[in-house]
Design a protein that fits this description.
Blueprint (H helix, E strand, L loop, with lengths): L23 H8 L1 H39 L9 H40 L1 H7 L4 H34 L12 H6 L3 H20 L2 H22 L7 E6 L9 E9 L4 E2 L9 H10 L2 E9 L4 H30 L6 H18 L1
Antiparallel strand pairs: 1-4, 2-3, 2-4
Helix pairs in contact: 2-3, 2-5, 3-5, 3-7, 3-8, 5-7, 5-10, 7-8, 7-10
Length: 357
């Protein structure tokens, strides 16, 4: 890895004054104006789709399902099937787009926000005008983080309201345990977007090339999304439900595990019994001394504790990634000792040696 040497020469005369300092925020907004417009359009379009989903589409789909339920077994059933399909399509598109936002943020941060500036020398230009590398990085993290948090937070709130408006009214509405709905409805998406921003910055500082940093930021953001999906069900104590062998397994909630309960109260794996004869299954479970089934799951009442705990975990990872980015930047821009100082020292040593001789 090559070293990015920060300029060590004297700063311009006006660099020390407040008026002469480069206005980093204005410069950042002008430099990345296309990305700012794209983000604004993306947020507005998704927000409009979610508001449409929240109001007219949910009402139309709910009315269509009432018509369908009123048909009963009649072969001549008239209901608005298009309203149901339209609601389903818009919901799926907006939900997938909201889940993809952290990946886009990570790719943009690595490829454009940091990678292109480091590769093209724009960052060194800022440092040459009296802006320290630390301040440069802090500004490029703080302002995009605020815009990403506000935009993503608004979309998450609208998605949650749109999903709640259809809950219990639209038969084909996604359950809260659906993996895409689970994250699009809560603050984990906001936390993932902020972590992706920090990951893109770190990738750019390590590679200092646009395309590798873009790919790395995208991959790290996808990895964080997978990690959050795996960790979320275990971020809060689960509820264990025990049922009899006649009742079968208890359903509901976000499942974590299931099996058999023995006469001693121990939980053992269920070998499974798929015979249509109940006597065969009863004999199989009797050999294991099974008295019932157990199911570990997260009920809907644990939704917000799970969301908040997972978001806190992702934000901690975001802080670690940001700290790593600042550490890499400080090490790669560490000023080197001027060559003249070493030469002067050497000359002085020679003169003292000659004088001693």
């Amino acid at each position: 890895m090559t070293t990015l040497t920060a300029p060590t020469g004297p700063a311009p005369a006006a660099a020390g004054s407040r008026a002469g300092r480069p206005r980093l925020v204005r410069w950042l907004l002008r430099l990345h104006r296309p990305a700012l417009y794209t983000w604004a359009v993306l947020v507005v379009v998704l927000a409009a789709g979610l508001v449409w989903l929240w109001g007219p589409l949910a009402d139309a789909a709910a009315s269509a399902w009432r018509q369908y339920d009123a048909c009963g077994m009649s072969p001549r059933c008239s209901y608005d099937q298009d309203a149901i399909l339209r609601y389903k399509d818009v919901y799926n598109y907006t939900t997938l787009a909201l889940n993809a936002l952290p990946l886009l943020v990570g790719a943009w941060a690595g490829g454009s926000l940091f990678g292109r500036e480091l590769e093209s020398g724009t960052a060194r230009l800022a440092w040459a005008q009296g802006v320290t590398p630390t301040r440069w990085l802090a500004t490029r993290l703080a302002l995009p983080a605020a815009l990403v948090a506000v935009g993503t937070g608004l979309l998450v709130l609208l998605h949650n309201r749109a999903w709640s408006a259809a809950r219990g009214r639209v038969t084909t509405a996604k359950d809260w345990t659906d993996t895409w709905t689970l994250h699009a409805n809560g603050p984990t998406t906001v936390a993932l977007a902020l972590a992706a921003l920090a990951a893109g910055a770190l990738a750019a500082l390590l590679w200092r090339r646009t395309l590798p940093a873009l790919a790395t930021g995208l991959c790290v953001a996808a990895g964080l999304r997978g990690l959050a999906g795996l960790a979320l069900p275990h971020m809060w104590p689960a509820v264990t439900r025990v049922t009899t062998l006649e009742e079968g397994y208890g359903g509901g909630g976000l499942p974590l595990g299931s099996g058999l309960v023995t006469a001693t109260g121990a939980h053992i794996p269920d070998p499974g019994c798929y015979s249509p004869d109940p006597a065969v299954c009863a004999g199989t479970y009797a050999k294991l001394h099974a008295t019932g089934f157990y199911t570990e799951s997260q009920p809907f009442s644990h939704y917000w504790p799970l969301q908040l705990a997972t978001s806190a975990l992702v934000l901690v990872l975001a802080c670690l990634l940001a700290w790593a980015a600042f550490t890499v930047l400080r090490r790669s821009t560490r000023p080197t000792a001027p060559a003249g100082k070493g030469a002067t020292t050497g000359k002085g040593a020679t003169t003292r040696k000659e004088a001693t001789a």
